[in-house]
Protein backbone atom coordinates (compact mmCIF):
# COMPACT_ATOMS: atom_id res chain seq x y z
CA UNK A 1 0.00 0.00 0.00
CA UNK A 2 1.42 3.39 -0.91
CA UNK A 3 2.89 5.16 2.03
CA UNK A 4 2.61 8.84 2.61
CA UNK A 5 5.73 10.66 3.31
CA UNK A 6 6.50 8.30 5.99
CA UNK A 7 6.28 10.65 8.73
CA UNK A 8 8.44 11.84 6.34
CA UNK A 9 10.63 14.03 5.42
CA UNK A 10 9.45 15.94 4.83
CA UNK A 11 9.56 16.63 1.76
CA UNK A 12 12.59 17.51 1.31
CA UNK A 13 13.09 18.19 0.35
CA UNK A 14 11.19 17.86 1.08
CA UNK A 15 13.97 18.51 0.70
CA UNK A 16 14.78 18.10 0.17
CA UNK A 17 13.36 18.12 -0.02
CA UNK A 18 8.29 17.15 -0.30
CA UNK A 19 8.89 18.90 0.07
CA UNK A 20 7.76 14.19 -1.46
CA UNK A 21 8.39 10.59 -2.34
CA UNK A 22 6.84 7.20 -1.76
CA UNK A 23 7.25 4.31 -4.06
CA UNK A 24 4.46 1.84 -4.12
CA UNK A 25 3.36 0.22 -7.30
CA UNK A 26 1.35 1.24 -9.17
CA UNK A 27 0.76 4.40 -7.17
CA UNK A 28 3.44 6.57 -5.76
CA UNK A 29 2.71 9.30 -3.29
CA UNK A 30 5.25 12.07 -2.86
CA UNK A 31 7.20 11.12 0.19
CA UNK A 32 9.61 13.08 2.23
CA UNK A 33 11.49 15.21 -0.19
CA UNK A 34 10.25 18.44 1.07
CA UNK A 35 11.78 21.00 -1.27
CA UNK A 36 14.04 21.39 1.41
CA UNK A 37 16.69 19.67 3.04
CA UNK A 38 17.50 19.35 6.60
CA UNK A 39 19.27 17.30 9.18
CA UNK A 40 17.95 16.24 12.56
CA UNK A 41 21.27 16.71 14.31
CA UNK A 42 21.81 20.48 14.09
CA UNK A 43 25.25 21.88 14.66
CA UNK A 44 26.07 25.31 15.96
CA UNK A 45 27.19 27.69 13.23
CA UNK A 46 30.97 27.77 13.29
CA UNK A 47 32.25 31.36 13.19
CA UNK A 48 28.70 32.77 13.22
CA UNK A 49 28.20 34.56 16.51
CA UNK A 50 24.59 34.92 17.61
CA UNK A 51 22.32 35.13 20.61
CA UNK A 52 19.38 32.78 21.07
CA UNK A 53 16.16 34.52 22.02
CA UNK A 54 12.49 33.61 22.39
CA UNK A 55 9.41 35.60 21.49
CA UNK A 56 5.89 34.96 22.72
CA UNK A 57 3.64 34.31 19.71
CA UNK A 58 -0.08 33.93 19.34
CA UNK A 59 -1.19 30.42 18.49
CA UNK A 60 -3.72 31.70 15.94
CA UNK A 61 -3.15 35.10 14.36
CA UNK A 62 -6.45 34.96 12.51
CA UNK A 63 -8.73 34.51 15.49
CA UNK A 64 -9.53 36.63 18.51
CA UNK A 65 -10.16 33.60 20.69
CA UNK A 66 -8.17 33.39 23.91
CA UNK A 67 -5.62 30.64 23.23
CA UNK A 68 -2.34 29.65 24.86
CA UNK A 69 0.69 31.42 23.33
CA UNK A 70 3.94 29.67 22.50
CA UNK A 71 7.61 30.60 22.53
CA UNK A 72 9.17 31.11 19.11
CA UNK A 73 12.95 30.77 18.98
CA UNK A 74 15.04 33.15 16.91
CA UNK A 75 18.73 33.87 16.53
CA UNK A 76 20.15 37.39 16.46
CA UNK A 77 23.65 38.03 15.18
CA UNK A 78 25.77 39.54 17.91
CA UNK A 79 28.90 40.28 15.92
CA UNK A 80 27.61 42.64 13.23
CA UNK A 81 30.02 45.52 13.56
CA UNK A 82 28.64 48.99 13.29
CA UNK A 83 24.90 48.20 13.26
CA UNK A 84 22.84 51.11 14.49
CA UNK A 85 19.29 52.37 14.49
CA UNK A 86 17.92 52.55 10.99
CA UNK A 87 20.46 50.12 9.53
CA UNK A 88 19.20 47.10 7.55
CA UNK A 89 17.94 43.85 9.03
CA UNK A 90 18.60 40.62 7.13
CA UNK A 91 15.87 38.18 8.10
CA UNK A 92 15.94 34.47 7.28
CA UNK A 93 12.51 32.83 7.04
CA UNK A 94 12.96 29.53 8.84
CA UNK A 95 12.16 26.24 7.10
CA UNK A 96 10.81 22.92 8.29
CA UNK A 97 13.56 22.18 10.78
CA UNK A 98 15.82 23.36 13.57
CA UNK A 99 16.81 26.98 12.95
CA UNK A 100 20.42 26.42 14.03
CA UNK A 101 20.83 23.97 11.17
CA UNK A 102 19.69 26.59 8.66
CA UNK A 103 21.88 29.23 10.25
CA UNK A 104 24.88 26.94 9.91
CA UNK A 105 24.16 26.30 6.24
CA UNK A 106 23.34 29.85 5.16
CA UNK A 107 26.75 31.42 5.28
CA UNK A 108 25.95 33.87 2.48
CA UNK A 109 23.77 35.98 4.78
CA UNK A 110 26.35 36.07 7.57
CA UNK A 111 29.24 36.75 5.22
CA UNK A 112 27.92 39.78 3.37
CA UNK A 113 25.83 41.38 6.13
CA UNK A 114 28.83 43.44 7.32
CA UNK A 115 28.94 45.18 3.92
CA UNK A 116 25.62 46.77 4.86
CA UNK A 117 26.12 46.94 8.63
CA UNK A 118 23.06 44.69 8.69
CA UNK A 119 21.68 42.90 11.72
CA UNK A 120 21.18 39.18 11.01
CA UNK A 121 18.08 37.41 12.31
CA UNK A 122 17.14 33.75 11.79
CA UNK A 123 13.58 32.97 12.85
CA UNK A 124 12.42 29.42 13.57
CA UNK A 125 9.26 28.08 11.93
CA UNK A 126 6.48 27.14 14.34
CA UNK A 127 6.21 23.40 15.13
CA UNK A 128 9.90 22.83 14.32
CA UNK A 129 13.04 22.90 16.42
CA UNK A 130 12.25 24.39 19.83
CA UNK A 131 9.30 26.51 18.66
CA UNK A 132 6.61 24.12 19.83
CA UNK A 133 3.06 25.20 20.63
CA UNK A 134 1.41 23.51 23.62
CA UNK A 135 4.75 23.15 25.36
CA UNK A 136 6.14 20.05 23.69
CA UNK A 137 6.40 18.28 20.35
CA UNK A 138 4.38 15.38 21.70
CA UNK A 139 1.43 17.63 22.52
CA UNK A 140 1.85 19.82 19.41
CA UNK A 141 1.82 16.76 17.12
CA UNK A 142 -0.90 14.93 19.04
CA UNK A 143 -3.68 15.09 16.46
CA UNK A 144 -5.28 17.13 13.69
CA UNK A 145 -6.66 19.66 16.15
CA UNK A 146 -3.29 20.44 17.72
CA UNK A 147 -1.55 20.45 14.32
CA UNK A 148 -4.16 22.67 12.70
CA UNK A 149 -2.10 25.81 13.42
CA UNK A 150 0.85 24.50 11.42
CA UNK A 151 0.43 26.42 8.16
CA UNK A 152 2.51 28.71 5.99
CA UNK A 153 0.04 31.55 6.65
CA UNK A 154 0.52 31.31 10.42
CA UNK A 155 4.30 31.11 10.02
CA UNK A 156 4.41 34.26 7.89
CA UNK A 157 2.27 36.08 10.44
CA UNK A 158 4.74 34.95 13.11
CA UNK A 159 7.58 36.52 11.15
CA UNK A 160 5.67 39.76 10.55
CA UNK A 161 4.79 40.12 14.25
CA UNK A 162 8.31 39.21 15.35
CA UNK A 163 9.91 41.75 13.01
CA UNK A 164 7.53 44.52 14.01
CA UNK A 165 8.17 43.94 17.71
CA UNK A 166 11.94 43.56 17.25
CA UNK A 167 12.25 46.84 15.37
CA UNK A 168 10.18 48.59 18.03
CA UNK A 169 12.31 47.21 20.86
CA UNK A 170 15.46 48.27 19.03
CA UNK A 171 13.98 51.75 18.46
CA UNK A 172 14.69 51.13 14.80
CA UNK A 173 11.29 51.23 13.10
CA UNK A 174 12.90 52.71 9.98
CA UNK A 175 15.28 49.81 9.41
CA UNK A 176 14.69 48.23 5.98
CA UNK A 177 14.18 44.45 6.14
CA UNK A 178 15.47 42.09 3.45
CA UNK A 179 14.11 38.55 3.53
CA UNK A 180 16.10 35.41 2.74
CA UNK A 181 15.12 31.79 2.39
CA UNK A 182 16.06 28.59 0.62
CA UNK A 183 13.69 25.87 -0.58
CA UNK A 184 10.52 26.03 1.55
CA UNK A 185 12.12 29.00 3.31
CA UNK A 186 12.56 30.59 -0.11
CA UNK A 187 8.89 30.09 -0.82
CA UNK A 188 8.07 31.77 2.47
CA UNK A 189 10.40 34.68 1.70
CA UNK A 190 8.76 35.30 -1.69
CA UNK A 191 5.25 34.94 -0.29
CA UNK A 192 6.03 37.23 2.64
CA UNK A 193 7.28 39.95 0.33
CA UNK A 194 3.97 39.71 -1.56
CA UNK A 195 1.76 39.46 1.54
CA UNK A 196 3.61 41.93 3.77
CA UNK A 197 5.27 44.53 1.48
CA UNK A 198 5.12 47.05 4.32
CA UNK A 199 7.23 44.76 6.51
CA UNK A 200 10.07 43.91 4.10
CA UNK A 201 11.50 45.78 1.12
CA UNK A 202 12.63 42.70 -0.82
CA UNK A 203 13.33 38.98 -0.78
CA UNK A 204 15.96 36.57 -2.04
CA UNK A 205 14.07 33.32 -2.70
CA UNK A 206 16.58 30.60 -3.52
CA UNK A 207 15.43 27.26 -4.96
CA UNK A 208 11.85 28.20 -4.15
CA UNK A 209 9.34 25.96 -6.00
CA UNK A 210 6.33 28.26 -5.70
CA UNK A 211 4.92 26.78 -8.93
CA UNK A 212 5.13 23.10 -7.93
CA UNK A 213 1.38 22.94 -7.43
CA UNK A 214 -1.69 21.69 -9.22
CA UNK A 215 -1.94 22.49 -12.94
CA UNK A 216 1.00 24.90 -13.03
CA UNK A 217 4.04 22.82 -13.96
CA UNK A 218 3.81 19.27 -15.33
CA UNK A 219 3.85 16.74 -12.46
CA UNK A 220 6.67 14.81 -14.20
CA UNK A 221 9.03 17.78 -13.90
CA UNK A 222 10.79 16.88 -10.65
CA UNK A 223 11.66 13.28 -11.49
CA UNK A 224 12.55 14.10 -15.07
CA UNK A 225 15.09 16.61 -13.78
CA UNK A 226 16.54 14.12 -11.30
CA UNK A 227 16.87 11.66 -14.17
CA UNK A 228 18.50 14.26 -16.42
CA UNK A 229 21.19 14.87 -13.81
CA UNK A 230 22.19 11.20 -13.91
CA UNK A 231 21.92 10.96 -17.69
CA UNK A 232 24.13 14.03 -17.96
CA UNK A 233 26.89 12.20 -16.13
CA UNK A 234 26.44 8.80 -17.77
CA UNK A 235 23.82 7.35 -20.08
CA UNK A 236 24.81 3.85 -18.99
CA UNK A 237 24.33 4.83 -15.34
CA UNK A 238 20.89 6.23 -16.16
CA UNK A 239 19.96 2.99 -17.95
CA UNK A 240 21.26 0.80 -15.13
CA UNK A 241 19.14 2.64 -12.57
CA UNK A 242 16.11 2.48 -14.88
CA UNK A 243 16.55 -1.30 -15.26
CA UNK A 244 17.21 -1.88 -11.57
CA UNK A 245 13.61 -1.41 -10.42
CA UNK A 246 12.42 -4.43 -12.38
CA UNK A 247 15.44 -6.40 -11.15
CA UNK A 248 14.62 -5.47 -7.58
CA UNK A 249 10.97 -6.50 -7.95
CA UNK A 250 11.92 -9.76 -9.65
CA UNK A 251 14.40 -10.74 -6.98
CA UNK A 252 11.94 -9.85 -4.26
CA UNK A 253 9.53 -12.45 -5.65
CA UNK A 254 12.12 -15.23 -5.72
CA UNK A 255 12.51 -17.85 -3.01
CA UNK A 256 14.56 -16.14 -0.27
CA UNK A 257 14.70 -13.13 -2.58
CA UNK A 258 13.88 -10.61 0.15
CA UNK A 259 16.61 -12.10 2.33
CA UNK A 260 19.09 -11.77 -0.53
CA UNK A 261 18.09 -8.15 -1.06
CA UNK A 262 18.51 -7.44 2.64
CA UNK A 263 22.03 -8.83 2.50
CA UNK A 264 22.98 -7.14 -0.78
CA UNK A 265 22.00 -3.73 0.61
CA UNK A 266 23.35 -4.45 4.11
CA UNK A 267 20.05 -3.76 5.85
CA UNK A 268 19.73 -3.98 9.61
CA UNK A 269 16.38 -5.81 9.36
CA UNK A 270 15.22 -8.30 6.78
CA UNK A 271 12.70 -6.96 4.26
CA UNK A 272 9.05 -7.97 4.31
CA UNK A 273 8.53 -6.47 0.86
CA UNK A 274 10.42 -4.23 -1.56
CA UNK A 275 8.55 -0.97 -0.90
CA UNK A 276 10.84 0.41 1.81
CA UNK A 277 13.95 -0.43 -0.20
CA UNK A 278 12.50 1.29 -3.26
CA UNK A 279 11.75 4.38 -1.16
CA UNK A 280 15.28 4.34 0.20
CA UNK A 281 16.83 4.22 -3.27
CA UNK A 282 14.42 6.81 -4.61
CA UNK A 283 15.34 9.22 -1.81
CA UNK A 284 19.06 8.78 -2.43
CA UNK A 285 18.80 9.63 -6.13
CA UNK A 286 16.53 12.61 -5.51
CA UNK A 287 18.70 14.09 -2.77
CA UNK A 288 21.84 13.50 -4.79
CA UNK A 289 20.33 15.62 -7.56
CA UNK A 290 19.55 18.36 -5.06
CA UNK A 291 23.06 18.49 -3.60
CA UNK A 292 25.20 17.83 -6.66
CA UNK A 293 27.59 20.54 -5.49
CA UNK A 294 31.00 21.19 -7.11
CA UNK A 295 32.78 20.74 -3.78
CA UNK A 296 32.59 18.32 -0.82
CA UNK A 297 29.68 19.03 1.52
CA UNK A 298 27.72 17.59 4.41
CA UNK A 299 24.50 19.51 3.85
CA UNK A 300 22.36 16.35 3.89
CA UNK A 301 25.01 13.67 4.18
CA UNK A 302 28.81 13.81 4.01
CA UNK A 303 29.46 13.75 0.26
CA UNK A 304 32.30 14.28 -2.20
CA UNK A 305 32.33 16.96 -4.88
CA UNK A 306 30.00 16.18 -7.77
CA UNK A 307 28.48 13.20 -5.93
CA UNK A 308 26.36 12.01 -8.88
CA UNK A 309 29.55 11.56 -10.89
CA UNK A 310 30.98 9.42 -8.09
CA UNK A 311 27.79 7.36 -7.82
CA UNK A 312 27.79 6.68 -11.55
CA UNK A 313 31.44 5.67 -11.45
CA UNK A 314 30.52 2.98 -8.93
CA UNK A 315 27.57 1.80 -11.01
CA UNK A 316 29.47 1.84 -14.32
CA UNK A 317 32.85 0.50 -13.20
CA UNK A 318 32.30 -2.95 -11.76
CA UNK A 319 34.08 -6.26 -11.53
CA UNK A 320 33.04 -9.08 -13.81
CA UNK A 321 30.25 -11.12 -12.28
CA UNK A 322 28.87 -8.23 -10.24
CA UNK A 323 25.08 -8.16 -10.41
CA UNK A 324 23.07 -5.08 -11.35
CA UNK A 325 21.72 -4.71 -7.82
CA UNK A 326 25.21 -5.02 -6.33
CA UNK A 327 26.25 -2.15 -8.60
CA UNK A 328 23.26 -0.11 -7.45
CA UNK A 329 24.22 -0.73 -3.84
CA UNK A 330 27.79 0.40 -4.52
CA UNK A 331 26.40 3.62 -6.00
CA UNK A 332 23.93 4.59 -3.27
CA UNK A 333 26.54 3.71 -0.66
CA UNK A 334 28.22 6.96 -1.75
CA UNK A 335 25.19 8.84 -0.48
CA UNK A 336 24.32 6.89 2.65
CA UNK A 337 27.79 5.82 3.76
CA UNK A 338 30.52 7.90 2.13
CA UNK A 339 32.45 8.03 5.41
CA UNK A 340 32.33 4.23 5.71
CA UNK A 341 31.13 4.37 9.30
CA UNK A 342 27.72 2.70 8.84
CA UNK A 343 27.62 -1.04 9.54
CA UNK A 344 24.05 -1.55 8.36
CA UNK A 345 21.14 0.55 7.14
CA UNK A 346 17.91 0.94 9.09
CA UNK A 347 15.21 1.78 6.56
CA UNK A 348 12.82 2.78 9.32
CA UNK A 349 15.23 5.45 10.54
CA UNK A 350 14.93 8.16 7.91
CA UNK A 351 17.85 10.54 8.55
CA UNK A 352 15.82 13.40 7.04
CA UNK A 353 12.42 12.56 8.46
CA UNK A 354 10.10 15.16 9.93
CA UNK A 355 6.49 14.42 10.66
CA UNK A 356 5.63 18.13 10.65
CA UNK A 357 6.16 18.27 6.92
CA UNK A 358 3.95 15.22 6.55
CA UNK A 359 1.12 17.28 8.00
CA UNK A 360 1.86 20.24 5.78
CA UNK A 361 1.98 18.03 2.68
CA UNK A 362 -1.40 16.57 3.66
CA UNK A 363 -3.10 19.91 4.10
CA UNK A 364 -2.02 22.85 1.91
CA UNK A 365 1.43 21.94 0.52
CA UNK A 366 0.20 19.39 -2.01
CA UNK A 367 2.82 19.03 -4.74
CA UNK A 368 1.68 16.50 -7.38
CA UNK A 369 4.49 14.39 -8.79
CA UNK A 370 4.50 11.76 -11.50
CA UNK A 371 7.16 9.83 -13.39
CA UNK A 372 7.21 9.56 -17.16
CA UNK A 373 8.00 6.37 -19.07
CA UNK A 374 10.17 8.09 -21.66
CA UNK A 375 12.29 10.59 -19.74
CA UNK A 376 12.49 9.22 -16.21
CA UNK A 377 14.82 6.60 -14.75
CA UNK A 378 12.12 5.88 -12.17
CA UNK A 379 9.16 3.52 -12.76
CA UNK A 380 6.35 5.24 -14.64
CA UNK A 381 3.38 6.28 -12.55
CA UNK A 382 0.70 8.95 -12.44
CA UNK A 383 -0.10 11.00 -9.38
CA UNK A 384 -3.35 9.70 -7.92
CA UNK A 385 -4.92 12.43 -5.81
CA UNK A 386 -7.70 10.19 -4.50
CA UNK A 387 -5.21 7.67 -3.12
CA UNK A 388 -3.03 10.48 -1.79
CA UNK A 389 -6.04 11.91 0.02
CA UNK A 390 -6.90 8.51 1.49
CA UNK A 391 -3.40 8.26 2.95
CA UNK A 392 -3.73 11.71 4.49
CA UNK A 393 -7.03 10.75 6.09
CA UNK A 394 -5.46 7.57 7.41
CA UNK A 395 -2.34 9.31 8.71
CA UNK A 396 -3.73 12.60 10.01
CA UNK A 397 -7.49 12.51 9.73
CA UNK A 398 -7.56 15.35 7.20
CA UNK A 399 -8.21 15.75 3.49
CA UNK A 400 -5.73 17.80 1.43
CA UNK A 401 -6.78 21.11 -0.09
CA UNK A 402 -4.66 21.24 -3.26
CA UNK A 403 -6.00 24.59 -4.49
CA UNK A 404 -5.70 26.50 -1.27
CA UNK A 405 -2.02 27.46 -1.49
CA UNK A 406 -2.44 29.05 -4.94
CA UNK A 407 -5.64 30.76 -3.77
CA UNK A 408 -3.74 32.23 -0.84
CA UNK A 409 -0.45 33.13 -2.53
CA UNK A 410 -1.03 32.86 -6.28
CA UNK A 411 0.94 30.89 -8.83
CA UNK A 412 -1.21 30.70 -11.94
CA UNK A 413 -0.35 33.35 -14.56
CA UNK A 414 2.56 34.26 -12.30
CA UNK A 415 4.28 36.51 -14.85
CA UNK A 416 1.25 38.71 -15.46
CA UNK A 417 0.40 38.95 -11.79
CA UNK A 418 3.87 39.70 -10.46
CA UNK A 419 4.67 42.12 -13.28
CA UNK A 420 1.72 44.21 -12.20
CA UNK A 421 1.65 43.73 -8.45
CA UNK A 422 5.07 42.47 -7.32
CA UNK A 423 8.53 43.97 -6.89
CA UNK A 424 11.95 43.35 -5.38
CA UNK A 425 12.14 39.54 -5.46
CA UNK A 426 15.12 37.52 -6.64
CA UNK A 427 14.36 33.95 -7.67
CA UNK A 428 17.69 32.13 -7.81
CA UNK A 429 17.93 28.59 -9.16
CA UNK A 430 20.47 26.06 -10.31
CA UNK A 431 19.24 23.84 -13.12
CA UNK A 432 20.76 20.70 -11.58
CA UNK A 433 18.31 21.12 -8.70
CA UNK A 434 15.10 19.19 -9.49
CA UNK A 435 13.10 21.80 -7.58
CA UNK A 436 14.13 24.40 -10.15
CA UNK A 437 11.40 23.06 -12.43
CA UNK A 438 8.80 24.47 -10.05
CA UNK A 439 10.39 27.88 -9.64
CA UNK A 440 10.54 31.15 -11.58
CA UNK A 441 13.25 30.86 -14.25
CA UNK A 442 12.76 34.05 -16.28
CA UNK A 443 12.78 37.73 -15.39
CA UNK A 444 9.28 39.03 -14.90
CA UNK A 445 10.05 42.73 -14.55
CA UNK A 446 12.92 45.07 -13.76
CA UNK A 447 12.63 44.12 -10.09
CA UNK A 448 11.34 40.51 -10.24
CA UNK A 449 14.59 38.90 -11.29
CA UNK A 450 15.46 35.27 -12.08
CA UNK A 451 19.10 34.32 -11.63
CA UNK A 452 19.62 30.92 -13.23
CA UNK A 453 22.86 28.94 -13.24
CA UNK A 454 23.07 25.80 -15.42
CA UNK A 455 25.43 24.02 -13.00
CA UNK A 456 23.90 25.17 -9.73
CA UNK A 457 22.25 22.83 -7.23
CA UNK A 458 19.84 23.32 -4.30
CA UNK A 459 20.21 26.91 -2.98
CA UNK A 460 23.97 26.73 -3.46
CA UNK A 461 24.12 30.53 -3.50
CA UNK A 462 23.03 30.68 0.15
CA UNK A 463 25.62 28.19 1.34
CA UNK A 464 28.87 29.33 2.98
CA UNK A 465 31.51 30.38 0.49
CA UNK A 466 34.51 28.11 -0.06
CA UNK A 467 37.84 28.31 -1.82
CA UNK A 468 36.41 25.90 -4.38
CA UNK A 469 33.50 28.09 -5.44
CA UNK A 470 33.35 28.28 -9.25
CA UNK A 471 33.47 31.69 -10.91
CA UNK A 472 29.82 31.52 -11.92
CA UNK A 473 28.79 31.14 -8.27
CA UNK A 474 30.92 34.08 -7.16
CA UNK A 475 29.36 36.21 -9.91
CA UNK A 476 25.85 35.08 -9.00
CA UNK A 477 26.32 36.16 -5.40
CA UNK A 478 27.72 39.51 -6.51
CA UNK A 479 24.63 40.02 -8.68
CA UNK A 480 22.41 39.28 -5.69
CA UNK A 481 24.36 41.70 -3.50
CA UNK A 482 24.10 44.44 -6.11
CA UNK A 483 20.34 43.99 -6.43
CA UNK A 484 19.89 44.06 -2.66
CA UNK A 485 22.06 47.16 -2.52
CA UNK A 486 19.76 48.85 -5.02
CA UNK A 487 16.68 47.99 -2.91
CA UNK A 488 18.26 49.44 0.20
CA UNK A 489 19.48 52.55 -1.60
CA UNK A 490 16.03 53.15 -3.07
CA UNK A 491 14.50 52.73 0.37
CA UNK A 492 16.78 55.28 2.01
CA UNK A 493 16.38 57.66 -0.93
CA UNK A 494 12.64 57.41 -0.54
CA UNK A 495 12.87 58.11 3.15
CA UNK A 496 15.08 61.09 2.50
CA UNK A 497 12.73 62.43 -0.13
CA UNK A 498 9.72 62.01 2.13
CA UNK A 499 11.54 63.84 4.94
CA UNK A 500 12.52 66.74 2.68
CA UNK A 501 8.96 67.17 1.44
CA UNK A 502 7.61 67.67 4.94
TrEMBL record:
SUPFAM superfamilies: alpha/beta-Hydrolases (SSF53474). Residues 1-24 form the signal peptide. It holds the Pfam family Peptidase_S28. GO terms for biological process: proteolysis. Gene3D superfamilies: alpha/beta hydrolase, Serine carboxypeptidase S28, SKS domain. GO terms for molecular function: carboxypeptidase activity; dipeptidyl-peptidase activity; serine-type exopeptidase activity. Keywords: Carboxypeptidase, Glycoprotein, Hydrolase, Protease, Signal. PANTHER family: LYSOSOMAL PRO-X CARBOXYPEPTIDASE (PTHR11010:SF38), PROTEASE S28 PRO-X CARBOXYPEPTIDASE-RELATED (PTHR11010). Belongs to the peptidase S28 family. This is Lysosomal Pro-X carboxypeptidase. It comes from Ananas comosus (Pineapple).
Amino acid sequence: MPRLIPLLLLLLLLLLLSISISFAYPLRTPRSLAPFARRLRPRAPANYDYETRFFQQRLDHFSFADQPPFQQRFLVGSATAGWGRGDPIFFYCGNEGDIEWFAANTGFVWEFAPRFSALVVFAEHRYYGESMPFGSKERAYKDAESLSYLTAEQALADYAILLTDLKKNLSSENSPVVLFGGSYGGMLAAWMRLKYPHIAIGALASSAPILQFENIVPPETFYDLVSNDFKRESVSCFKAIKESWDALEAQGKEHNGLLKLSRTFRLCQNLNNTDALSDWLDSAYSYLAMVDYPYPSDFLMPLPAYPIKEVCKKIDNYAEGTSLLERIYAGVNIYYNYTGTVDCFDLEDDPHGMSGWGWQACTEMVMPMSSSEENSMFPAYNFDFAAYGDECVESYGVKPRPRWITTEFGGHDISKVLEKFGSNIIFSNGLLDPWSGGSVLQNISDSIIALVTPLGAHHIDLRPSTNNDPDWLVKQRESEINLIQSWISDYYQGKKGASNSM
